[in-house]
Design a protein that fits this description.
By secondary structure, the chain is mainly beta. The protein is built from 1 helix and 9 strands; from the N terminus they run ββββββββαβ. It is about 10% helix and about 40% strand. Strand 2 and strand 3 form a beta hairpin.
């Protein structure tokens, strides 16, 4: 999948089951590996992600299925909370999305 980074800014993110996630605010790039590692998303749907007082989340790029008029990601199975996520990462290296202070 090849795309210009600037084309991602402001795009809406949806799951493959049609659930709105939010809008892309920034792109996280791994310079040494020359690849996108995540998408910083704001205006988060509170029914999908519980971000608490955070302004957004970072969606792992491995979740991205397609990029076009919108960005399509793998469906999130449950509502993800910031506290749950930290505990999951510590215990088993969870694949939940990370919160960001953006």
């Amino acid at each position: 999948m090849e795309t210009e980074l600037s084309s991602l800014y402001g795009q809406e993110v949806y799951t493959d089951k049609g659930a709105y996630i939010g809008k892309i605010e920034d792109v996280k790039v791994n310079i040494t590996e020359k690849r996108i590692s995540g998408l910083a998303v704001q205006d988060i749907n509170p029914n999908i992600f519980d971000v608490g007082d955070k302004k957004g989340i970072i969606i792992p790029y491995r979740w991205v299925m397609a990029i076009g008029d919108i960005v399509l990601i793998k469906h999130v199975r449950r509502r993800i909370g910031a506290k749950e996520e930290e505990e999951g990462k510590e215990e088993e290296g969870s694949e939940d999305a990370g919160s960001t202070g953006r």
